[in-house]
Write a structure and sequence with these properties.
The complex is a heterodimer of chains A (about 260) and B (about 300).
Chain A lengths: L1 E14 L2 E7 L1 H6 L5 E4 L11 E4 L2 E3 L2 E7 L3 H7 L6 E8 L11 E7 L3 H11 L5 E6 L19 E4 L6 E2 L2 H10 L6 E6 L2 H13 L4 E4 L15 E3 L8 E3 L6 E3 L9
Parallel strand pairs in A: 8-9, 8-12, 9-10, 10-11, 12-13
Antiparallel strand pairs in A: 1-2, 1-7, 2-6, 3-4, 3-7, 5-6, 13-16, 14-15
Chain B lengths: L13 E3 L2 E3 L3 E3 L21 E7 L12 E4 L2 E4 L7 H14 L4 E6 L4 H10 L8 E5 L16 H14 L4 E4 L7 H11 L3 E4 L3 E3 L2 E2 L4 E2 L6 E4 L4 H14 L4 E4 L5 H10 L3 E4 L2 H4 L3 H15 L15
Parallel strand pairs in B: 3-4, 3-16, 4-7, 7-8, 8-9, 9-10, 10-15, 15-16
Antiparallel strand pairs in B: 1-2, 5-6, 6-14, 11-14, 12-13
Helix pairs in contact in B: 2-3, 3-4, 4-5, 5-6, 6-8
The chains are: A alpha/beta (about 260), B alpha/beta (about 300).
């Protein structure tokens, strides 16, 4: 974990309200791993007061990449950063994804901006047999990986309104993939909005498929001090809550209580 | 730069009744975990002290999420006093804290008078603990959930009970959610507290207008951060004028100039809280800033500015 001032290398719009940013930090780049995250101070001063967590989308040399959608004040300020601007960043933080064994076929399921850590994972796994499914609301939200300078990755797209790729939810796409691979052992890696994660976790648990979910949460510190990012653990756990920043953000879906999340 | 005074290191040590600190900067309970969380980012040995997360007799799970939400120049939290409990604190957290070259102050709380007493008793004779800080802002289950700290008589009883069970200096942390904080301060002083710390968070809420629900699962939470600083400073000033025991000031301190305001108002030391979340090194930046302020003005000791407010 490092805290330092980092230089913005680029920050460009890649889809509706969606930005792709690179910032330079050799020590953070060295210890980055798919699923881990950084806490970024979008502006110095007192408002906004807290840092914002972002999943690491990839590493290019000594540049860390993040992909984000403008959803509030913090991300709006971030979207105005220019190359050469400096920002305080703390990271990399948390536990990332555990890669699957050779015999296990990876299925990556992304919803919206949940694609960010899965792009990193997909590049790291570099498996020819991996499935990569990405769901969006509408086509204008679809992030083209070519535009990110990433070649050789082409997720299967689903949009809820059918304006691009498969018509419907990404979970429908997941179910059709699973129906084709009855005998094969597979593992699901997922990140996205909570209702989608719930649906994916239920499918995985129902079919007894290992599933790692990356969760998002409000958090103040990112290092386990504030206890703000609590998430309910499965009833049989020895502790009632886990903390997204330290115990996660990537969890084994079976260890969480999906009834109350 | 010919003034030889500028070369003298100012004396930063302060004395809070029986409790001596090498400098007046502490980290506030609940914002610095058990000290270790930030240790790879800053050197906790340089601090005047660490006030650890509030400890209760039994482990507490805390409130359901969402537990925190950002507000203008601040944040609301409803963590629900989640903590590892007395036993795990002693076996898992204290051994590491004990090795530090700083004062470790243990924040304690209970849901009943007996629980306060039991936590204090459990820490009696334990080495490596410089003082107890008593959180009286939590709900009293025996009296309909009203906070202990809102009634002078009840606040005094908690103080007496803890004093009876402990061999350590007792700091009582006051709630600002009262009509007149001076009445509570006086009662706690008369009960025998060695020092006071204030302010705890101010109760607040914020609403999601789409869902029409509170943004915190708990409904309300405690407001902290620079938004509360003027209120905190005023209360510290009021209390300093009212009691004869030392006061530790806190509430929205983000930089050295903020800390200096509290010291000038009469606080003998300060606690840095929410700012730790925004910048893990902030407490040391504040300490350095206080030192530079004194050096630049040729002030020999931090004691020379404490309570130096001109009326």
């Amino acid at each position: 974990m490092i805290e330092e001032s980092t230089e913005v290398v680029f920050n460009k719009r890649v889809a509706r309200n969606t930005f792709f940013m690179g910032f330079r930090s050799a020590p953070m780049a060295d210890t980055s791993k798919p699923g881990r995250f950084v806490m970024m101070q979008v502006r110095s001063g007192i408002d906004p007061l807290l840092r914002r967590p972002f999943s690491i989308c990839g590493v290019n040399g000594d540049v860390l990449l993040i992909l984000y959608r403008v959803v509030g004040r913090g991300t709006a300020i971030l979207s105005e950063k220019k190359p050469g601007d400096f920002m305080q960043v703390l990271g990399p933080l948390g536990r990332g994804f555990e890669p699957p064994g050779e015999a296990v076929q990876p299925i990556l399921v992304a919803g919206g901006m949940g694609i960010a850590p899965l792009i990193f994972l997909s590049l790291k796994l570099a498996r020819k047999d991996q499935y990569f499914l990405a769901g969006y609301g509408v086509s204008s939200e679809v992030v083209s990986l070519d535009q990110l300078g990433i070649v050789g990755l082409s997720p299967a797209i689903a949009t809820e309104d059918g304006s691009e790729g498969h018509h419907g939810r990404v979970t429908k796409l997941l179910e059709s993939v699973l129906s084709t691979m009855k005998e094969k052992s597979s593992a699901i890696f997922t990140c996205g909005p909570l209702p989608m994660l719930k649906a994916v976790a239920q499918i995985a648990i129902g079919q007894n498929i290992p599933c790692q979910v990356s969760l998002e949460s409000n958090m103040a510190c990112g290092v386990g001090a504030c206890q703000g990012c609590a998430v309910k653990k499965a009833p049989e756990s020895n502790k009632p809550y886990a903390h997204v920043c330290q115990d996660g953000p990537v969890f084994d879906a079976k260890t969480l209580d999906w009834e109350v999340i | 730069m010919n003034n030889p005074d500028l070369l003298v290191q100012p004396d930063l040590s302060v004395q809070l009744g029986p409790l001596g600190l090498k400098n007046p900067v502490l980290t506030a309970s609940g914002t610095f975990g058990y000290g270790r969380e930030f240790a790879s980012l800053m050197d906790p040995n340089l601090l005047g002290g660490i006030v650890v997360k509030g400890i209760s007799l039994k482990p507490m799970a805390g409130n359901p999420p969402p537990r925190i939400v950002e507000t203008p120049c601040g944040m609301l939290n409803a963590i629900g006093l989640a903590n590892v409990g007395l036993e795990s604190f002693l076996s898992e957290k204290l051994p590491w804290l004990r090795k530090l070259d700083t004062r470790v102050i243990v924040n304690i709380y209970g849901h009943t008078l007996d629980e306060y007493g039991a936590v204090a008793a459990g820490l009696k004779g334990v080495s490596g603990i410089a003082a107890l800080e008593v959180n009286i802002s939590c709900p009293n289950v025996e009296q309909g959930g009203m906070a202990f700290g809102t009634d002078p008589a009840v606040a005094a009883r908690v103080t007496e009970r803890v004093l009876k069970e402990t061999d350590k200096p007792v700091i009582v942390k006051l709630s600002p959610n009262v009509t007149d904080i001076r009445a509570i301060a006086r009662a706690v002083e008369h009960a025998g507290a060695h020092a006071l710390s204030l302010i705890n968070t101010l109760t607040g809420m914020t609403i999601d207008i789409e869902k029409r629900t509170s943004k915190l699962a708990n409904g309300s939470g405690g407001l902290s951060g620079p938004a509360i600083r003027p209120v905190a400073l005023h209360m510290v000033h009021q209390v300093v004028k009212t009691v004869n025991i030392p006061v530790i000031g806190m509430g929205g301190i983000l930089e050295a100039r903020d800390a200096l305001e509290f010291l000038i108002a009469g606080a003998q030391a300060v606690q840095v809280g929410t700012a730790n979340f925004a910048n893990p090194r902030v407490s040391l930046d504040i300490l350095e800033g206080i030192e530079n302020f004194l050096k630049d003005r040729g002030i020999q000791s931090v004691k020379d500015i404490i309570g130096s407010l001109k009326s």
